[in-house]
Design a protein that fits this description.
- The protein is 76% helix and 1% strand.
- With 276 residues, the protein is mainly alpha-helical.
- The chain folds into two domains: 32 residues; 232 residues, MetI-like fold.
- The longest helix has 34 residues.
- It starts with a helix and ends with a helix.
Length: 276
């Protein structure tokens, strides 16, 4: 039996070798540039990065935008997942197409679409003036709010689908049983439904936050250079400043945040699964 398992495990070798050569090795070489100096190994680049007030503002802005994007996507995705679970026949197909079809479009296309909507003469400003909400165009483009809304729209399917997968497995008789015992709708939601759906919420939040914190195209097109993120600093360091140690350092910081999110979400999902 052990030998059979080992032979089956060998099937993963080509994939692991591909990841090691194409992903892990270049990543290690990139990270090595952040600590390698002519005088030897040094963490001076990290000290300089965290000592710079501008870099810290960009770091906190990146974390804030990723957090707000995740929360907005969650607020939209959670009821959407339940609506999809209750839908039948053609309506379920409509929901699934609405979730999957945007994923087939390039991020550039979706980011450009939002930049057009947010313009002073775009559809949103035109509609607001037409209904009388404002007398003149409201500044939407090049704002953090626009970035959060656009990013939440782009990453919404990655929040909806994990929650929907968990909601589909819920036993609908559990809330009914709680109701028969006199539980109010709010009590049933916070003590029955929400705890059972938290694994999907954690998975969707981890997906969305990880992508939001490392996005580059969306902020470049919606907010431009006025409100930079860590990904934009990395691009500027490599492409314009030609400062590879700085770009590698920022890449390592971004990678550390992504790893922390993945590890923490895995740990939280295991704890939630054990409680159930």
């Amino acid at each position: 039996m052990i030998g059979r398992v080992n032979r089956i495990a060998l099937l993963a070798v080509p994939g692991l070798a591909y990841l090691a050569v194409i992903y892990a090795l270049p990543l290690l070489l990139l990270l090595a540039k952040s600590i390698r100096t002519p005088d030897g190994l040094s963490f001076g680049e990290y000290s300089a990065f965290f000592a710079d007030d501008y870099n810290m503002r960009v770091l906190w802005r990146t974390l804030r935008v990723a957090t707000l994007t995740t929360l907005l996507a969650l607020a939209i995705a959670y009821p959407t997942a339940f609506a999809m679970n209750r839908a039948n026949g053609p309506w379920l197909t409509v929901f699934l197409v609405a979730m999957v079809l945007p994923m087939s479009l390039g991020v550039v296309v979706k980011a450009f679409a939002w930049s057009i909507l947010f313009r002073a003469n775009g559809f949103l400003n035109t509609a607001m003036q037409w209904v009388g909400l404002t007398d003149k165009p409201v500044r939407m483009l090049f704002t953090e709010t626009a970035l959060v809304i656009g990013a939440a729209n782009v990453f919404l399917p990655f929040m909806v689908l994990p929650i929907y997968a968990v909601v589909r497995q819920l036993d609908s008789r559990l809330p009914e049983a709680a109701a028969s015992l006199g539980a109010s709708p709010m009590f049933r939601f916070f003590n029955v439904t929400l705890p059972l759906t938290l694994p999907g919420v954690v998975a969707g939040a981890a997906f969305t936050f990880s992508m939001a914190i490392s996005m580059y195209v969306i902020p470049s097109l919606i907010v431009g250079e006025r409100q930079q993120t860590l990904s934009m600093l990395i691009a500027r360091s490599f492409l314009y400043l030609r400062n590879e140690p700085l770009g590698s350092t920022i890449s390592a910081v971004l990678l550390a945040i992504a790893i922390f999110v993945v590890v923490f979400s895995s740990w939280l999902a295991r704890r939630l699964g054990a409680r159930q």
